[in-house]
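Appendix B. Raw example, untouched.
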Amino acid sequence: MNADLLVREETARRAHDLYDSGIRAIVETEENIGKMVIIDLETGNYECQTADRESVQILKQKNPNARLYGIKIGYDVAVVLGGVLERSTK
């Protein structure tokens, strides 16, 4: 298996573990559905602003070397090309 693929899979797993272990319970509210939560994979800090860029800037100010990952709140994927974005059932 390609080493880059393993790194991407591990990055995604880490982000989803952080999200599922506590962030989800805080951010997954009706007013946040469809927004992106940006997570710093090293510190576990996260931001959920209206503009994704604002979230990234806030986290980068706290930790300039942050490895960031975005999750669309209430959905299994962030974008769909040529299809319909469906809400997750979690």
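End of appendix B.
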